[in-house]
Amino acid sequence: MEYALVNGEIIGRSEAKIDVEDRGYQFGDGVYEVIRVYNGKLFTAGDHLKRLVKSADSIGISLPYTIQQLTEMIEELLSKNNLETGNIYMQVTRGVAPRNHVFPAGNVPPTLVAYTIRAVRPLDNLKIGVKTILTEDIRWLRCDIKSLNLLANLMAKQKASERGCFEAIQHRGQDVTEGSSSNIFIVKDGTVITHESNNLILKGITKDVILDLCGKNNIPVIERTFTVAELDEAEEVFLSSTTAEVTPIIEINGTKVNEGVPGPITKKLQNLFEKEIEKQCGVLVR
Ligand code: PLP
To answer: Of the listed 131, 146, 157, 207, which one is catalytic?
Structure first.
C-alpha cells in the first residue's frame, strides 16, 4: 500500500481527496517542490524546503509547519513507502474557499500534499546526452516562484517532445533564460556560464550545487545572461534539474553541439555531482 501526506497526516494514497474548490485545483494558486531520494535518503532537502517556504511567502501563503516538521513528515512518508530511489512531490495551495479570484479572507488553512514517485536515475541520458529545441519564453515575469501554474512550461516541453527532443530551451528575444523544467549552462572559452538567478528563471537547487562545485574545483564559472548566438557557438551545453542531474545537451534545433558527444567539463561536473550525492546519501549503484 502506498501512502500520501495530506495536511500533516499520513494516509493511504487512495484515500487522499482534494475538494473541487481547492484553489490549487481551480487556479493553480499554490507552489510545489520535487525532492530527490537516493538510497532511501533525501538529497539537498533543506534547500528545497527553504525554497518551498520562500515561494509560498512570495504569494502570501504562510505554511503552518516549520522546516524541521516538514522534514520529519517527508522522512516518515518515504520510510512508510519504502522509497529507495525516486522523488517526493510536495505542493501547498491557498486552501479551499468559494471560487473567487480575490484571496479568501480569514484563516483558510493551506492544503499541503506530498507523495512519492519511484524513479531510477536517467543513466542513458546522463551518458549519451539529450536533444533539445529552442523556443520563445512566453512565461510571466515571476519565474523565480516555483508556482503550480506550469502551462507555458508544459507547452514548451510538449513542443520538444513532438520533435523527438527531451527539453525546450527558452529565450526572451536574444537572451536564453532556462529550460521548460531545467536550468541551462554553456561552456565558452573553458568558462561555465548560466543565467543569473533573478525573476526570469527558477533558482535551481541543482544549479546552486553545480556553482558550488565549480568554485571548489577551480572550474571558471560566471552567472550572467547569454545570448542565442553564444548558445549556438558554445563548446559544451548542459542542463540541470533535480531529476535530470547534470545532463549533456548534444543537439539544439537539429544542430550538433560538440560533434554530438558530452564535453569534458560536463563530464567532470557529472562526476563531481555524483560524488556530492554519495556524500549526502551513500554509494550509488551504477
Ligand atoms: N527551471 C525550471 C523551470 C524548473 O521547473 C526546474 C525544475 O523543475 C529547474 C529550473 C531546476 O530546478 P532544480 O534544480 O531545483 O530542480
So the answer is: 146
Q: What is the pLDDT of residues 81-133, one digit of tens each?
A: 999 999 999 999 999 999 999 999 989 999 999 999 999 999 999 999 999 99
Distance 169 CA to ligand 1 centre (A): 13
- In tens, the pLDDT along 149-194 reads 999 999 999 999 999 999 999 999 999 999 999 999 999 999 999 9
Question: 98: helix, coil or strand?
Answer: coil
Q: Is the CB of 147 under 6 A from ligand 1?
A: no
Whether 188 is catalytic is no
Q: Which three cell numbers stand for residue 194?
A: 548560466
The continuous run of DSSP H or E covering 25 comes out as: helix 23-27
What's the CA-to-centroid distance between 107 and ligand 1, angstroms? 31
β-strand pairing of 167-172 with 221-223 = unpaired
Compute the distance from residue 243 Cα to the ligand 1 centre, in Å: 9
Contact in structure between 172 and 137 (CB atoms under 8 Å)? yes
For 96-235, list the strands marked E by DSSP.
Answer: 111-118, 130-136, 167-172, 175-179, 183-188, 191-194, 221-223, 226-227
Report which protein residue has its CA nearest ligand 1's atom 8.
181
Report whether residue 181 contacts ligand 1, using a CB cutoff of 6 Å: yes
| Per-residue confidence (pLDDT) for residue 228, from 0 to 100 | 98
